Amino acid sequence: MLRLVEHLAQPGGTQDISESLATALELWLAADGETPAAADPAGMRGYQWKTLFLPEGTVLRSWSYGEHNYACVEGDKIMHEGASVTPNQFARSFARTARNAWFDLSVRRPGDKHFKIASRLRQELAEEEKARAITTSHID
Question: Looking at the whole model, is its pTM more than 0.85?
Answer without folding.
Answer: no
